[in-house]
Design goal:
Bound molecules: 3-methylmercaptopropionate-CoA (MMPA-CoA)
Order of helices and strands: EEHEHHEEHEEHHHEHEHHHH
Strand content: 5-15%
Number of domains: 2
CATH superfamily of the largest domain: 2-enoyl-CoA Hydratase, Chain A, domain 1
CATH class of the largest domain: Alpha Beta
Radius of gyration: 19 Å
Structural class: alpha/beta
CATH architecture of the largest domain: Alpha-Beta Complex
Length: 261
Protein backbone atom coordinates (compact mmCIF):
# COMPACT_ATOMS: atom_id res chain seq x y z
CA UNK A 1 0.00 0.00 0.00
CA UNK A 2 1.47 3.37 -0.98
CA UNK A 3 0.14 6.84 -0.29
CA UNK A 4 -1.31 6.96 -3.79
CA UNK A 5 -3.26 3.72 -3.76
CA UNK A 6 -6.52 5.42 -2.84
CA UNK A 7 -6.48 7.39 -6.10
CA UNK A 8 -7.29 4.37 -8.19
CA UNK A 9 -9.33 1.26 -7.59
CA UNK A 10 -8.12 -2.02 -9.01
CA UNK A 11 -10.06 -5.22 -9.38
CA UNK A 12 -10.05 -8.18 -11.69
CA UNK A 13 -12.93 -9.77 -13.54
CA UNK A 14 -11.47 -13.03 -14.76
CA UNK A 15 -8.59 -12.10 -17.06
CA UNK A 16 -9.61 -8.43 -17.16
CA UNK A 17 -8.11 -5.80 -14.85
CA UNK A 18 -10.50 -2.93 -14.12
CA UNK A 19 -8.80 0.31 -13.13
CA UNK A 20 -11.02 3.04 -11.69
CA UNK A 21 -9.92 6.69 -11.57
CA UNK A 22 -10.97 7.53 -8.05
CA UNK A 23 -10.85 11.24 -7.43
CA UNK A 24 -14.48 12.07 -8.17
CA UNK A 25 -14.59 15.18 -5.97
CA UNK A 26 -12.08 16.76 -8.40
CA UNK A 27 -13.68 15.13 -11.44
CA UNK A 28 -10.70 12.76 -11.66
CA UNK A 29 -8.34 15.63 -12.54
CA UNK A 30 -4.85 14.17 -12.83
CA UNK A 31 -2.30 15.40 -10.30
CA UNK A 32 1.34 14.26 -10.17
CA UNK A 33 0.48 11.70 -7.50
CA UNK A 34 -2.50 10.52 -9.54
CA UNK A 35 -0.48 9.89 -12.69
CA UNK A 36 1.85 7.67 -10.62
CA UNK A 37 -1.13 5.78 -9.21
CA UNK A 38 -2.38 5.19 -12.75
CA UNK A 39 1.08 3.94 -13.70
CA UNK A 40 1.18 1.50 -10.76
CA UNK A 41 -2.21 0.09 -11.69
CA UNK A 42 -1.35 -0.22 -15.38
CA UNK A 43 1.88 -2.08 -14.64
CA UNK A 44 0.07 -4.35 -12.21
CA UNK A 45 -2.58 -5.09 -14.83
CA UNK A 46 0.12 -5.98 -17.32
CA UNK A 47 1.61 -8.46 -14.87
CA UNK A 48 -1.71 -10.03 -13.83
CA UNK A 49 -4.27 -9.69 -16.61
CA UNK A 50 -4.73 -10.23 -20.33
CA UNK A 51 -6.73 -7.04 -21.00
CA UNK A 52 -7.63 -3.92 -19.04
CA UNK A 53 -10.37 -1.34 -18.64
CA UNK A 54 -9.96 2.23 -17.42
CA UNK A 55 -13.04 4.08 -16.15
CA UNK A 56 -13.84 7.03 -13.92
CA UNK A 57 -15.64 6.87 -10.58
CA UNK A 58 -18.33 9.51 -10.19
CA UNK A 59 -20.07 11.15 -13.13
CA UNK A 60 -16.99 11.99 -15.18
CA UNK A 61 -14.23 10.01 -16.83
CA UNK A 62 -11.54 12.65 -16.33
CA UNK A 63 -11.29 16.47 -16.25
CA UNK A 64 -7.68 16.39 -17.46
CA UNK A 65 -4.68 17.99 -15.88
CA UNK A 66 -5.02 19.13 -12.28
CA UNK A 67 -4.98 22.85 -12.99
CA UNK A 68 -4.42 23.84 -9.36
CA UNK A 69 -1.13 21.95 -9.30
CA UNK A 70 -0.08 23.02 -12.78
CA UNK A 71 -0.50 26.72 -12.14
CA UNK A 72 2.24 26.56 -9.48
CA UNK A 73 4.85 24.78 -11.60
CA UNK A 74 8.14 26.31 -12.76
CA UNK A 75 8.94 25.78 -16.44
CA UNK A 76 11.27 22.81 -16.17
CA UNK A 77 8.96 21.03 -13.70
CA UNK A 78 6.16 21.39 -16.27
CA UNK A 79 8.39 19.86 -18.95
CA UNK A 80 9.28 16.93 -16.69
CA UNK A 81 5.63 16.50 -15.73
CA UNK A 82 4.58 16.30 -19.37
CA UNK A 83 7.35 13.81 -20.10
CA UNK A 84 6.18 11.68 -17.19
CA UNK A 85 2.64 11.60 -18.61
CA UNK A 86 4.17 10.49 -21.91
CA UNK A 87 5.95 7.60 -20.20
CA UNK A 88 2.87 6.50 -18.27
CA UNK A 89 0.50 6.76 -21.23
CA UNK A 90 3.06 4.95 -23.36
CA UNK A 91 2.89 2.09 -20.86
CA UNK A 92 -0.81 1.91 -21.67
CA UNK A 93 -0.55 2.29 -25.44
CA UNK A 94 2.50 0.11 -26.06
CA UNK A 95 2.53 -2.29 -23.15
CA UNK A 96 1.72 -5.99 -22.98
CA UNK A 97 -2.06 -5.96 -22.97
CA UNK A 98 -4.83 -4.00 -24.70
CA UNK A 99 -6.92 -1.45 -22.77
CA UNK A 100 -10.47 -0.19 -23.25
CA UNK A 101 -11.62 3.12 -21.82
CA UNK A 102 -15.18 3.43 -20.54
CA UNK A 103 -16.11 7.08 -20.95
CA UNK A 104 -18.83 8.79 -18.95
CA UNK A 105 -19.36 12.54 -18.57
CA UNK A 106 -16.31 14.65 -19.32
CA UNK A 107 -13.24 13.38 -21.14
CA UNK A 108 -11.48 16.68 -21.55
CA UNK A 109 -7.92 17.84 -22.02
CA UNK A 110 -5.64 15.26 -20.43
CA UNK A 111 -8.69 13.03 -19.91
CA UNK A 112 -9.06 12.74 -23.66
CA UNK A 113 -5.30 12.20 -23.94
CA UNK A 114 -5.62 9.32 -21.47
CA UNK A 115 -8.53 7.84 -23.43
CA UNK A 116 -6.53 8.22 -26.66
CA UNK A 117 -3.74 6.10 -25.18
CA UNK A 118 -6.18 3.19 -24.75
CA UNK A 119 -6.86 0.95 -27.71
CA UNK A 120 -10.64 1.07 -27.77
CA UNK A 121 -12.95 3.81 -26.52
CA UNK A 122 -16.51 3.11 -25.39
CA UNK A 123 -18.55 6.23 -24.65
CA UNK A 124 -22.03 6.37 -23.21
CA UNK A 125 -24.75 8.82 -24.21
CA UNK A 126 -24.07 11.98 -22.23
CA UNK A 127 -20.29 11.70 -22.47
CA UNK A 128 -18.59 14.79 -23.90
CA UNK A 129 -15.19 15.65 -25.28
CA UNK A 130 -13.25 18.90 -25.39
CA UNK A 131 -9.74 20.30 -25.52
CA UNK A 132 -10.01 23.55 -23.54
CA UNK A 133 -6.26 24.20 -23.49
CA UNK A 134 -6.72 27.33 -25.63
CA UNK A 135 -9.09 28.83 -23.05
CA UNK A 136 -6.72 27.91 -20.22
CA UNK A 137 -3.62 29.35 -21.93
CA UNK A 138 -1.80 26.03 -21.97
CA UNK A 139 -1.22 23.24 -24.49
CA UNK A 140 -1.78 19.51 -24.62
CA UNK A 141 1.09 17.78 -22.81
CA UNK A 142 -0.06 14.20 -22.34
CA UNK A 143 0.64 12.97 -25.86
CA UNK A 144 -2.48 14.45 -27.45
CA UNK A 145 -0.70 16.22 -30.28
CA UNK A 146 0.43 12.78 -31.44
CA UNK A 147 -2.37 10.42 -30.37
CA UNK A 148 -5.47 12.60 -30.66
CA UNK A 149 -4.22 14.15 -33.89
CA UNK A 150 -3.74 10.70 -35.40
CA UNK A 151 -7.03 9.44 -34.01
CA UNK A 152 -9.31 12.18 -35.39
CA UNK A 153 -6.92 14.07 -37.69
CA UNK A 154 -4.87 17.19 -36.95
CA UNK A 155 -7.44 19.52 -38.56
CA UNK A 156 -10.23 18.32 -36.27
CA UNK A 157 -7.98 18.41 -33.25
CA UNK A 158 -6.96 21.95 -34.18
CA UNK A 159 -10.64 22.87 -34.51
CA UNK A 160 -11.35 21.50 -31.00
CA UNK A 161 -8.39 23.40 -29.54
CA UNK A 162 -8.99 26.66 -31.40
CA UNK A 163 -12.73 26.88 -30.87
CA UNK A 164 -13.16 24.99 -27.60
CA UNK A 165 -16.09 23.14 -29.16
CA UNK A 166 -17.57 20.32 -27.12
CA UNK A 167 -18.38 17.07 -28.92
CA UNK A 168 -21.04 14.57 -27.91
CA UNK A 169 -20.35 10.83 -27.89
CA UNK A 170 -21.99 10.35 -31.28
CA UNK A 171 -20.13 13.30 -32.80
CA UNK A 172 -16.86 11.85 -31.53
CA UNK A 173 -17.84 8.47 -32.95
CA UNK A 174 -18.44 10.17 -36.31
CA UNK A 175 -14.94 11.67 -36.06
CA UNK A 176 -13.40 8.28 -35.34
CA UNK A 177 -12.43 9.02 -31.74
CA UNK A 178 -14.85 6.53 -30.23
CA UNK A 179 -15.57 3.01 -31.44
CA UNK A 180 -18.74 2.23 -29.47
CA UNK A 181 -21.54 4.50 -28.23
CA UNK A 182 -23.80 2.84 -25.68
CA UNK A 183 -26.81 3.85 -23.59
CA UNK A 184 -26.24 5.90 -20.47
CA UNK A 185 -25.02 3.70 -17.62
CA UNK A 186 -23.68 0.99 -19.93
CA UNK A 187 -20.11 2.12 -20.69
CA UNK A 188 -18.31 0.14 -17.99
CA UNK A 189 -20.19 -3.12 -18.57
CA UNK A 190 -19.66 -2.87 -22.31
CA UNK A 191 -15.97 -2.06 -21.88
CA UNK A 192 -15.48 -5.09 -19.62
CA UNK A 193 -17.32 -7.27 -22.14
CA UNK A 194 -15.04 -6.06 -24.96
CA UNK A 195 -11.92 -6.48 -22.82
CA UNK A 196 -12.97 -10.03 -21.87
CA UNK A 197 -13.29 -10.84 -25.53
CA UNK A 198 -9.84 -9.41 -26.31
CA UNK A 199 -8.43 -11.39 -23.40
CA UNK A 200 -9.31 -14.58 -25.27
CA UNK A 201 -7.06 -13.66 -28.21
CA UNK A 202 -3.57 -15.06 -28.48
CA UNK A 203 -1.37 -12.97 -26.17
CA UNK A 204 1.35 -12.54 -28.75
CA UNK A 205 -1.13 -11.32 -31.37
CA UNK A 206 -2.54 -8.75 -28.94
CA UNK A 207 1.00 -7.65 -28.17
CA UNK A 208 1.78 -7.34 -31.87
CA UNK A 209 -1.43 -5.41 -32.56
CA UNK A 210 -0.76 -2.78 -29.93
CA UNK A 211 2.98 -2.53 -30.49
CA UNK A 212 3.38 -3.06 -34.23
CA UNK A 213 0.41 -1.11 -35.60
CA UNK A 214 1.36 2.34 -34.23
CA UNK A 215 5.01 1.82 -35.19
CA UNK A 216 4.12 0.66 -38.69
CA UNK A 217 1.87 3.72 -39.01
CA UNK A 218 5.01 5.82 -38.44
CA UNK A 219 6.95 4.01 -41.20
CA UNK A 220 7.09 4.38 -44.96
CA UNK A 221 4.88 1.88 -46.82
CA UNK A 222 7.94 -0.07 -47.86
CA UNK A 223 9.29 -0.35 -44.31
CA UNK A 224 5.82 -1.05 -42.95
CA UNK A 225 5.24 -3.95 -45.31
CA UNK A 226 8.61 -5.43 -44.41
CA UNK A 227 7.96 -5.07 -40.67
CA UNK A 228 4.51 -6.61 -41.14
CA UNK A 229 6.01 -9.72 -42.75
CA UNK A 230 8.43 -10.11 -39.85
CA UNK A 231 5.72 -9.76 -37.19
CA UNK A 232 3.35 -12.05 -39.09
CA UNK A 233 6.00 -14.74 -39.38
CA UNK A 234 6.90 -14.51 -35.70
CA UNK A 235 3.24 -14.82 -34.70
CA UNK A 236 2.82 -17.94 -36.80
CA UNK A 237 5.73 -19.59 -35.00
CA UNK A 238 4.16 -19.39 -31.53
CA UNK A 239 2.70 -22.56 -30.00
CA UNK A 240 -0.49 -20.62 -29.44
CA UNK A 241 -0.86 -19.99 -33.17
CA UNK A 242 -0.13 -23.63 -34.00
CA UNK A 243 -2.77 -24.82 -31.49
CA UNK A 244 -5.36 -22.31 -32.65
CA UNK A 245 -4.85 -23.03 -36.35
CA UNK A 246 -5.08 -26.78 -35.69
CA UNK A 247 -8.26 -26.27 -33.66
CA UNK A 248 -9.87 -24.46 -36.58
CA UNK A 249 -8.83 -27.07 -39.10
CA UNK A 250 -10.18 -29.81 -36.81
CA UNK A 251 -13.52 -27.99 -36.54
CA UNK A 252 -13.00 -27.17 -32.84
CA UNK A 253 -12.85 -23.35 -33.19
CA UNK A 254 -15.55 -20.76 -33.76
CA UNK A 255 -16.16 -19.71 -37.35
CA UNK A 256 -16.43 -16.06 -38.31
CA UNK A 257 -20.12 -15.36 -38.78
CA UNK A 258 -21.96 -12.50 -40.46
CA UNK A 259 -23.17 -9.89 -37.92
CA UNK A 260 -26.85 -10.76 -38.34
CA UNK A 261 -26.37 -14.55 -38.44
C1 LIG B 1 -10.61 20.55 -11.12
C2 LIG B 1 -10.49 20.26 -12.49
C3 LIG B 1 -9.17 20.29 -13.06
C4 LIG B 1 -12.56 20.12 -11.97
N1 LIG B 1 -8.16 20.62 -12.24
N2 LIG B 1 -9.55 20.83 -10.37
N3 LIG B 1 -9.33 20.69 -17.75
C5 LIG B 1 -10.31 21.57 -17.85
O1 LIG B 1 -10.15 22.70 -18.24
C6 LIG B 1 -11.64 21.08 -17.36
C7 LIG B 1 -12.04 21.85 -16.12
N4 LIG B 1 -13.22 21.24 -15.49
C8 LIG B 1 -14.47 21.46 -15.94
O2 LIG B 1 -14.72 22.06 -16.97
C9 LIG B 1 -15.56 20.90 -15.08
O3 LIG B 1 -15.07 20.73 -13.78
C10 LIG B 1 -16.14 19.53 -15.56
C11 LIG B 1 -16.94 19.76 -16.87
C12 LIG B 1 -15.06 18.49 -15.79
C13 LIG B 1 -17.10 18.98 -14.48
O4 LIG B 1 -18.04 19.98 -14.13
P1 LIG B 1 -18.84 19.83 -12.74
O5 LIG B 1 -19.83 20.95 -12.70
O6 LIG B 1 -19.33 18.45 -12.57
O7 LIG B 1 -17.72 20.01 -11.59
P2 LIG B 1 -17.06 21.37 -11.01
O8 LIG B 1 -17.98 21.98 -9.98
O9 LIG B 1 -16.61 22.27 -12.11
O10 LIG B 1 -15.73 20.81 -10.31
C14 LIG B 1 -15.79 20.07 -9.11
C15 LIG B 1 -14.46 20.25 -8.41
O11 LIG B 1 -13.43 19.69 -9.24
C16 LIG B 1 -14.08 21.71 -8.24
O12 LIG B 1 -13.31 21.83 -7.07
P3 LIG B 1 -13.97 22.33 -5.68
O13 LIG B 1 -12.85 22.26 -4.68
O14 LIG B 1 -14.45 23.73 -5.95
O15 LIG B 1 -15.11 21.38 -5.38
C17 LIG B 1 -13.21 21.99 -9.45
O16 LIG B 1 -12.30 23.06 -9.23
C18 LIG B 1 -12.45 20.67 -9.52
N5 LIG B 1 -11.91 20.44 -10.85
N6 LIG B 1 -11.71 20.00 -12.99
C19 LIG B 1 -8.35 20.87 -10.93
N7 LIG B 1 -8.96 20.01 -14.33
C20 LIG B 1 -0.99 17.09 -19.66
S1 LIG B 1 -1.60 18.51 -20.34
C21 LIG B 1 -3.33 18.39 -20.33
C22 LIG B 1 -3.94 19.73 -20.41
C23 LIG B 1 -5.34 19.72 -19.89
O17 LIG B 1 -5.82 18.75 -19.36
S2 LIG B 1 -6.20 21.18 -20.11
C24 LIG B 1 -7.81 20.81 -19.57
C25 LIG B 1 -7.96 20.96 -18.10
Amino acid sequence: MTDRDDLVTYETHGDVAVIGLNRPDKRNAISDRFVEAINDAVLRAQAEARAGVIHGHGKHFCAGLDLSEHSEKPLFEAVKGSRRWHTVFDHIERGNIPFVSAITGAAVGGGLELAASTHIRVAEDGAFFALPEGQRGIFVGGGGSVRIARMIGPARMGDMMLTGRVLSASEMEHWGGVSYVVDAGQALDRAIEIAARMAQNAEFTNYAIINALPRIADMSSEDGLFAESMVASLATMTDDAKDRLRAFLDGRADKVRAPDA
